[in-house]
Amino acid sequence: MSKETARRSKAERKEDKTGSNNANMDNNLNMEDKTQEYQEQYAAMVKSTPELPDLVIYQILQLLSTRYAIRASILSKQWERVWSLIPLLDFDEEEQHGDHVFQHDKFEYFVTNCLRRHEKDHKKEYLDKFRLRTRYYGYENLINQCLSFAIWKNVKQLDLSLYTTHNLSYPLYNLPHTVLNAKSLTSLNLESVAISWGWGFQHVRLPSLKSMSLKEVLVDEFAFVKLISGCPSIESLSIDSCGGLSRVDVSSSSLKSLEVIRGFTEYELTVKAANLESFRLGDSVHHVGGNDDFNERRGTIIETPKLRSCEFIGYWQTGFSLNAPKLSEATIILGDRADSYFNTFPHNPKMRNFLGQFDCSGKMSLHVMDAEVFIWLNY
């Protein structure tokens, strides 16, 4: 190759490189122009798009779970402002998926940050409802933080449900007595917690409480008596598979609806409620033994002059007494026999006495799972 040709090739390469650099610069400028143009178009679009009324956004966010409502609140400052006005917080760890421990850590981080966002709004001093459903690994920090926040916000409906994995077991979380003295509470739902009579337990004052549900709650008799007596306005009470009790006395002049699910527990039940209108009693359907001694330990005495509706589910009892002169509707569902009790006493008068307690002036429904019982009743 001659020197002239080499110089010409070098000059051409230099020119091509310069042209390429200039083209890249032009492309970059064009991209910057386009980016700025897109930004201006987006800003114009947002500015020209009419805002939804706060009431509409409020109703939309109320239909969403707390997790998705928070995600929706990042759409704009308006959505964020409206979200902070919603008096409802619902945290459910089951909404997340994945490894339990890692999932729980994420859930705790999410709840903590959500509470911090709400704490910034000092003007809103109430919550209509606060619900927390989470796994319990023996650590109380998150639960204590949530309950303190809810009480501070004068919550009306409090729903606390704790559960553990199948292969892990921890002592039940002991409910702080501040919850049992929250004057703003109108509804209290508790699951898998403990209420114990001990140090610092002085009294229960829930003057506004209308509804209470206790499911798988460990509660001793002294604490239960204090709990019922501390709710002068209660109208609805549900006791489901609670432990730690040998005797339950429900005495309330305001109570209108009562549900007691004893399961396999053996405590005696006495109900004296002058204004009770609806009563439901559930026992173990597959009753083991069928003997009088077991039935007497599970004795039931119901004195309710205004009772209208009654439902019994389980195995018939010898220690059952129902005084309800205005009973107009009764449903009795009897479980199957677990031994030869009916073969020994096919015409047992105690069965007749049990059914005779349901002196109903209106509709009475009887469901039996044992064919021999059905034949005997029609004898």
UniProtKB/TrEMBL annotation:
<dbReference type="Pfam" id="PF24758">
    <property type="entry name" value="LRR_At5g56370"/>
</dbReference>
<feature type="region of interest" description="Disordered">
    <location>
        <begin position="1"/>
        <end position="30"/>
    </location>
</feature>
<protein>
    <recommendedName>
        <fullName>F-box domain-containing protein</fullName>
    </recommendedName>
</protein>
<feature type="compositionally biased region" description="Basic and acidic residues">
    <location>
        <begin position="1"/>
        <end position="18"/>
    </location>
</feature>
<dbReference type="InterPro" id="IPR001810">
    <property type="entry name" value="F-box_dom"/>
</dbReference>
<feature type="domain" description="F-box">
    <location>
        <begin position="51"/>
        <end position="86"/>
    </location>
</feature>
<dbReference type="InterPro" id="IPR032675">
    <property type="entry name" value="LRR_dom_sf"/>
</dbReference>
<feature type="domain" description="F-box/LRR-repeat protein 15/At3g58940/PEG3-like LRR">
    <location>
        <begin position="150"/>
        <end position="320"/>
    </location>
</feature>
<dbReference type="Pfam" id="PF00646">
    <property type="entry name" value="F-box"/>
</dbReference>
<dbReference type="InterPro" id="IPR055411">
    <property type="entry name" value="LRR_FXL15/At3g58940/PEG3-like"/>
</dbReference>
<feature type="compositionally biased region" description="Low complexity">
    <location>
        <begin position="21"/>
        <end position="30"/>
    </location>
</feature>
<dbReference type="InterPro" id="IPR036047">
    <property type="entry name" value="F-box-like_dom_sf"/>
</dbReference>
